[in-house]
Write a structure and sequence with these properties.
Elements lengths: L11 H9 L1 H4 L5 H11 L9 H5 L22 H6 L2 H55 L3 H10 L6 H18 L3 H8 L10 H16 L3 H10 L7 H14 L3 H13 L6 H17 L3 H11 L6 H14 L3 H11 L8 H12 L3 H8 L8 H14 L3 H10 L6 H16 L7 H13 L4 H17 L3 H10 L4 H14 L4 E3 L5 E3 L1 H11 L9 H12 L6 H7 L15 H4 L2 E4 L6 E8 L2 E7 L11 E5 L2 E5 L5 E10 L4 E6 L4 E7 L2
Antiparallel strand pairs: 1-2, 3-4, 3-10, 4-5, 6-7, 7-8, 8-9, 9-10
Helix pairs in contact: 1-6, 3-6, 6-7, 7-8, 8-9, 8-10, 10-11, 10-12, 12-13, 12-14, 13-15, 14-15, 14-16, 16-17, 16-18, 18-19, 18-20, 19-20, 20-21, 21-22, 22-23, 23-24, 23-25, 24-25, 24-26, 25-27, 26-27, 27-28
């Protein structure tokens, strides 16, 4: 305080007053609002960018304006020391001292405030940021338990709670991948965010279920689904992936067992997802022409394959369209017993060709299933189209090839009947052609006179050419009508002389082909037409080597005389019925017909004794052959040859003796 009277400073005591009151000058009341200010401003300063410059603040504490030390007092100049009074210097020193004390207090207060603010910034901004960074590092290092604890300690700092949930989710995913589903669920229940993204968890869970499924671990899959039911949304896809893996490893039964067991436990919600996976694998095998594996897979998993026939149908259709009929045939062969309607593609293609009139190509397509039941209806349709197009020969051929199918046999006859009249006059027909035309003529409803004329033509061709095959076919194919008997018999008589020839010495030689052909034709008559039986026996004798005199041969061609040659159609047995004796009356035989084709044979010959095991006999060819009780041949006993109408020759095997016998009237 300045003295108003003389302008001089007050005495020293007045100077002391500010010194004593210096503490009051610090005004502690001011500190409170200044220090508290950071707390109120803390929320505003939370911008991350402030953190870095604030961290440097503590380093400023060292200087802290180290000005509290008083500046050295000014030294008096030499003049002042010599002239000034001591009392005059005191007031000059006191005035600066008062200002310095106030400055020191202000500086000290500011330092305290600065320290408090720095501490607050560190505690509320810097340290949480450092802890957050450390927690994030733990999460990145997959130290999930430590990361969870660190984020929870940060409380509401930034997104610490969300990060804690993220760490729990990552831990749960890790547990799922290790098959520890119960522990994973426990961790998931601690997550507070109901909207947390579980996509990654679902992916891991799906991978684990797929892995368990691919190992056929039914219990493992069930455990996963049971434990994680609230968190999994792709269990069916995961199971399907596991099933696919099993199929690719050719573990078809394991795949079937897995699906069946999971289905029975209602662990598969949408079976179509699994079926789609199985079908895709089957399709892949078929597309790769791996029919062996496709068939093996079918036998295990057919219940879960969609549109099996459609897959096969498409494959066969592609082969047919490419003209690869052999490949299509192989495919049908592989899958025929594995899928419904395996030949549908073949039938559809063949029918399309038939409709388009490409019948020859349709036959080739039908050949793909020639060994299977689908072949016959396709061929029937082709034959029917040929018939419609009036190509009766092809129609008949095709209908005949499937004669046991529906009315194919009748349709074949109908087709042949259409060409019968064109063929009836054809020359040089084979036995098969004759039979075919005969059936066609009859089926065509031709008049009987036309049929009779055709039979006569057939017999004439057979006998004139001595065609035994043609004659035999006539016998087996034709029932001789009464209206044709006389004409056919005339053909036989006309050709009868050719059955034997006689040289100038009267030696007769039989013509076996002629004899065989005439016998076949005569068999059409039975035994009731004039001399047919006698003619047949005569032919039998010719075949047996019988010889006749020149006069006898001439007589033979007179049909009326043939009645005297033989009395039975039973060959040699009938020819020698009666009594036959040697000229000296010492030897002879007697053949008696008992009826029913049996005979008694009594003899007096130098034939030696019968074997002890002889029980019966029969005439085979020219020989009388002895048989035992079992009907087995023992030996030839005698040989009989007809020399002429009244003479026979008997050769005795045991004694090598030959006798000439004459028939007794």
């Amino acid at each position: 305080m300045r003295n108003e009277a003389d302008g001089s400073r007050s005495p020293r005591r007045r100077v002391e007053t500010p010194v004593e009151e210096a503490p009051k000058a610090e005004v502690p009341v001011v500190e409170t609002p200044v220090v508290e200010a950071p707390k109120a401003e803390a929320p505003v300063v939370e911008a991350p960018k402030v953190e870095t410059p604030v961290v440097e603040a503590p380093k400023a504490e060292a200087p802290h304006f180290e000005a509290p030390k008083p500046a050295p007092a000014p030294q008096p100049s030499p003049v002042a020391v010599a002239t000034a009074a001591p009392a005059a210097t005191a007031p000059a020193e006191e005035k600066p001292k008062k200002k310095k004390g106030l400055l020191i207090g202000i500086i000290a207060g500011a330092a305290v405030l600065l320290l408090a603010a720095a501490a607050a910034v560190f505690m509320f901004l810097i340290k949480p940021g450092m802890d957050y960074t450390a927690a994030q590092k733990l999460l990145e290092d997959k130290s999930y338990d430590e990361a969870i604890a660190a984020f929870e300690k940060l409380g509401n700092y930034k997104d610490s709670q969300a990060k804690a949930d993220e760490a729990r989710l990552e831990k749960a995913i890790k547990l799922v991948s290790s098959g520890k589903f119960d522990k994973a669920v426990k961790e998931l229940k601690e997550i507070e965010d109901d909207d947390i993204d579980l996509a990654k968890l679902n992916e891991a869970l799906g991978d684990e279920i797929a892995k368990l499924a691919s190992e056929g671990d039914v219990d493992g899959v069930l455990d996963a689904i049971d434990a994680m039911g609230d968190y999994v949304d792709n269990a069916d896809e995961a199971v399907a992936a596991g099933v696919s893996a099993l199929i690719q490893n050719q573990e078809y039964y394991s795949a079937y067992a897995l699906i069946a067991d999971l289905s029975s436990d209602d662990a598969i919600e949408d079976m179509s997802v699994v079926r789609a996976a199985v079908t895709k694998e089957f399709q892949a095998l078929v597309d790769a022409d791996n029919f062996d594996e496709a068939t093996s897979m079918y036998y295990s998993l057919a219940d879960y394959i969609d549109d099996i026939s459609g897959i096969a149908y498409k494959k066969i259709s592609e082969a047919i369209e490419a003209g690869k009929y052999d490949s299509a045939r192989s495919l049908v062969e592989y899958i025929y017993w594995s899928v419904p309607e395996p030949a549908k593609a073949v039938a559809d293609k063949a029918n399309a060709l038939i409709e388009a009139g490409e019948l020859d190509e349709a036959i080739l397509v039908a050949g793909i299933v020639e060994d299977y039941s689908e072949y016959r209806p396709i061929i029937y349709s082709i034959a029917d189209k040929y018939f419609e197009n009036e190509d009766y020969e092809k129609a008949a051929t095709l209908f005949d090839s499937i004669s046991w199918y529906e009315d194919a046999s009748d349709r074949a006859k109908a087709a042949r009947s259409k060409v019968a009249l064109d063929l009836i006059d054809k020359e040089g027909m084979t036995a098969e052609e004759y039979a075919e035309v005969y059936d066609a003529v009859r089926d065509a409803g031709a008049e009987q006179s036309v049929i009779d004329a055709f039979i006569v033509k057939w017999a004439k061709d057979a006998l004139e050419d001595a065609d035994t095959e043609l004659a035999s076919k006539l016998y087996y194919s034709v029932y001789l009508p009464d209206s044709a008997e006389a004409d056919v018999y005339a053909v036989v008589l006309e050709n009868l002389p050719k059955t034997a020839t006689v040289d100038s010495n009267g030696v007769l030689t039989s013509n076996e082909d002629e004899i065989t052909a005439i016998k076949s034709v005569l068999d059409l008559f039975g035994y009731y037409y004039e001399s047919v039986p006698q003619i047949k026996d005569y032919l039998t004798c010719l075949s047996a080597g019988k010889s006749f005199s020149n006069d006898d041969v001439t007589t033979l061609w007179d049909v009326s005389g043939m009645k005297d040659i033989l009395t039975s159609e039973l060959g040699l047995s009938g020819a020698i019925v009666g009594n036959w004796e040697s000229d000296d009356g010492e030897y002879g035989i007697e053949m008696t017909e008992r009826g029913n084709g049996t005979f008694n044979f009594n003899y007096e010959l130098p034939a030696g004794d019968l074997p002890e095991n002889t029980r019966s006999w029969y005439i085979g060819g020219h020989d009388l052959i002895l048989t035992d009780e079992n009907g087995e041949d023992i030996q030839s006993f005698v040989k009989i040859t007809v020399t002429d109408l009244d003479h026979i020759t008997v050769y005795c095997y045991n004694t090598d003796t030959t006798l000439e016998l004459t028939k007794e009237s």
